[in-house]
Amino acid sequence: MAFLANQSHATAAAFLENLLKKSLLPPKPQTLQTLYHPKKNVHHHKPLYISAVTRFGFITEPEDSSKTRCNAYEARSQPAPISIEFDQEAAAQKLKIGVYFATWWALNVIFNIYNKKVLNAFPFPWLTSTLSLAAGSLLMVVSWATRIAQAPETDLDFWKTLFPVAVAHTIGHVAATVSMSKVAVSFTHIIKSGEPAFSVLVSRFFLGETFPLPVYLSLLPIIGGCALSAATELNFNLIGFMGAMVSNLAFVFRNIFSKRGMKGKSVGGMNYYACLSIMSLFILTPFAIAVEGPHLWAVGWQNAVSQIGPNFIWWVVAQSVFYHLYNQVSYMSLNEISPLTFSIGNTMKRISVIVASIIIFNTPLQPINALGAAIAISGTFLYSQAKQ
What are the transmembrane regions (predicted)? Predict the structure, then answer.
């Protein structure tokens, strides 16, 4: 019995010694393969992000504050949804520009329709042009007086700089009105689509500016289209044709004077055009009186009212107010968009005016004439692209 007791104690001692040795040995490191479990969401084929090493195995040693604690997690098998916040400010700006363009085109079409109606019944383009400027000037003065719009801060230097711009604007405005009093609205605007050709020629020969070859090439369809349209116009009138050409030249100089003289000026957009209208009104009024005169106006007014009736007065008011509004919106648009976008918008505006006037006034149009118009307008679009 004593022998069995001693043997039992020896076996127990050996077992205890072996157990202590095993507990002191570091455990076998776990591998990614051993971490796999069919019911778990961890797999070694998916990326595993390691953020700590503490307790990564099965070590139960006391936690050391000098070690970094982190965990491991598996990447999502599907990308997390990314919420992109829509830029409301950019969307509002695009909507604003779209409203400007739509309003600009609509007002321009309405003006041209009523302007042509007035000129058909009352063929006095100098007075008609004066009334257009007077209506716009009155609207802006009232807006400033009632504080609907903030009045611009101007000085004598501003008005001196504005004077050549106003002279060119007055000539261009009257010349275009004279043209529309003699020929169809569509023909006037087809010829006026040749304004880029005048712009390049004036800038090249008077200002010494040079342009890349694509700009010069874009003038070929403009000039060719205008020439084809003029040669095939059924109701061609030399005064009407020359009026549109003079208007193109005058507006080119207006733009040049405006760019050179108004740099650094604080007045812009709506107020700039208002000041331009007021000065143009003072320039135009004495010339309108000298060329046509109150006596002819009185006789022509009576004839128009007797033929048309009270609606004629509405036509005069409408063409005067809408002339100012469409120009005002165009200047406001120019403050919000690039020159290229404005040029494209101006081309589309001219197309809408030509199409609308042909439909409303039943203007006879030959296919070759329409082809000339399409070529000229396409050239205008190409010019706006090449200029940039």
Answer: 97-114, 126-145, 238-257, 269-291, 311-327
Q: Which helix (H) or strand (E) holds 189?
A: helix 185-192
Q: How far apart are CA 285 and CA 300, in angstroms?
A: 18
From 42, 77, 112, the end of a domain falls on 77
Q: What is the pLDDT of residues 108-159, one digit of tens each?
A: 999 999 999 999 999 999 999 999 999 999 999 999 999 998 999 888 989 9
Q: Are residues 130 and 65 in the same domain?
A: no
Length of the chain: 388
Q: Give CB contacts under 8 A, 24+ apart, made by 17-25.
A: none
**In the chain, beta strands by DSSP E:** 48-50, 72-74
Per the CB < 8 A criterion, the answer to whether 382 and 335 are in contact is no
What 90-97 contacts at long range (C-beta under 8 Å, 24+ apart), as own/partner pairs, is 93/336, 96/336, 97/333, 97/336, 97/337, 97/341
Q: Which residues in the chain land under pLDDT 70? A: 1-87, 261-265, 338-340
Return contacts of 72-76, CB within 8 angstroms, 24+ apart: 72/48, 73/48, 73/49, 74/41, 74/42, 74/43, 74/46, 74/47, 74/48, 74/49, 75/46, 75/47, 75/48, 75/49
212/215 Cα distance (integer angstroms): 6
User: Rounded to an integer, what distance in angstroms lies between the CA atom of residue 258 and that of residue 273?
Assistant: 11
Are 273 and 382 found together in one domain?
Answer: yes
Cα dihedral across residues 104, 106, 108, 111: positive or negative: negative
Based on the domain organization, do 370 and 237 belong to the same domain? yes
Give me the domain span that covers residue 274: 102-387
How many domains does the structure of the chain reveal? 2
Tell me the C-alpha distance between 10 and 16, whole Å: 10
